[in-house]
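Usage

Read records sequentially. Each one opens with the input sequence:
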Amino acid sequence: MATLSLDDGTLWYETRGDGQPLVFIHGGWMNGQAWAPQVERFADEYQVVTLDVRGHGKTGATDPSQYSIELFTDDLEVLLSELDLEAPILCGLSLGSMVAQEFLDRHPDRAASAILGGAVRSMPPVDLPTGLKPFLSPLPAVTTSLSMMGPETIFRSLLVSIQATTGEQWLSVDPAVRAAAMDAVGEISRDEFRKVFGALYRYEPSDLSHVETPTLVVHGEQEAPLVKRQGRELVSELAGEHLELPNAGHLVNQDRPNAFNTEAAAFLEPIAR
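and closes with the structure output:
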């Protein structure tokens, strides 16, 4: 992996292959390895870029006491500039889909296309009055819980609460994928877990109807219904395409890697010509 010095930390990233840039942004409390099946598939045709977002993976802790999706997007912009990448294809999962959406909002015609897996617009995936949201914040409770339990325990409790409302294996239908995700969470410190949680909760999505970028939104059939609804809203705003893969959960690119890759390649083929 390579490193990029920021004013307040060091961003770790990796590039493979040549061609049009295809940039993968992982989900919350994961790392760039979450895209391994896609890197292997596309590195022969594209310049594939993966990164570990602040607080995650090799990038780990950085100086700010508070993170935001906007800050993560700032980092993405710095990386694209450092690598001199024009017209990138953005592929984001969950938190990474938020970063991609923020980038599209800022640059409605800069990206060649976007693929949003497990796409979510806000956390929780419901509309809350802007003025009321800070007063409903679960951050104090999360901070208290983290002082007594580790991130992996907190994450498991989040999964239990989500699955109780969906009745599905929400995160992943594959035990090996779930285990790898839990291992990644376990590598994150308490403070970084809190900062990432805060970034997810505080993010306020913008209307993206001005975005001109061709976009594909992909969910697993066992995705939370409210998240699927947000995906449909995204597709409506972006005039994009929506795809639901059977036998897959939130980590749709890992649950159904071959199907995800096939659909992504088909979507990108006319754009890459």
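Summary fields computed downstream for this record:
- The CA atoms of residues 122 and 218 lie 16 Å apart.
- Strands lie at 2-6, 9-16, 21-25, 47-52, 89-93, 113-117, 215-220, 241-245.
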